Amino acid sequence: VASNALDLIGNTPLLELPSLSAATGCRVLAKAEFLNPGGSAKDRVAAAIVAEAEAAGTLREGGTVVEATAGSTGISLALVCAAKGYRCHLVAADDVSPQKRELITALGATLELVRPAAIADAAHPVNVARARAAALGDGSIFADQFENLANTRAHEAGTAAEIWAQRSRECHTRLDWPTRGTVDAFVMGAGTGGTLAGVSRTLKRRKADPRSRRRSLPSVRVFLADPPGSALFHRVEHGVLYAPQQQERTARRNRYDTIMEGVGCDRLTANFAAARIDAAFRESCAMARRLLRDEGLFVGGSAAMNCVGVLRAAEVLPPGSTIVTVLCDGGQRY
Question: Where are its TM segments located (predicted)?
Fold first, then answer.
């Protein structure tokens, strides 16, 4: 029996994707994060940010949690604040999906919509949210999901540890497998970079069970799946934050954006900087309909993009490798 709604966050299953396994010759496993109570992996981040702020004494009774969000983190924060008795004020770009807007307000949060803007602009959602939190004063916080390393810590302690434990339990029942806990590669996109950082850091330092036939596992390979319009691909591959949309002759007055809601970034965040990534792929979200047709999974564009990244990773991995990705949220909110 769970003691409260927040105890339902995490411990989501690893789900095999048979159609992708058959297509790649690898074993494809996906963390079903859409099964969190708020419907996405951001539940973990919201709960961790609030818990750490409470422990530090910066968030107190009667306080407000303020955040800039593309929607999913806002939904999760609204849920956590409702369960904890805090107010929640969210700032989002006005191109966020109407489904997310409706869900945020239904959960009792205040939603402020602003025009998309560059991060250096005071009108950028992050800067607006920071200003709103400062105006509220002591006892309220700016969640700051992009720079707040509670984000990474939530996925180190939760998502990554669960992946490893789930694989270890499964391998333990398979006497024909030479190692326990085998994960050969992890693939996903990045918004804040928290999931990628937390999972990559944890999986890369894990060792095999000492009872296995090998004393240690080769390092897990981590791949970034990055959508058009994001600068992170070139950061990983060439060490420079750059996207073709930033070319001087084609730059627009208003900030360009990626084709994916909440995925990709035009700056280096503290969470993304903590990630340990081996390579990056340019990806699109054309996979969503295939997952619905072949797997019976109705997922959002970011989850679909992650699965396209799996196909690219399989091309450079040995046959039979185990590739893990994340189904970030469901398609109902897009």
Answer: none
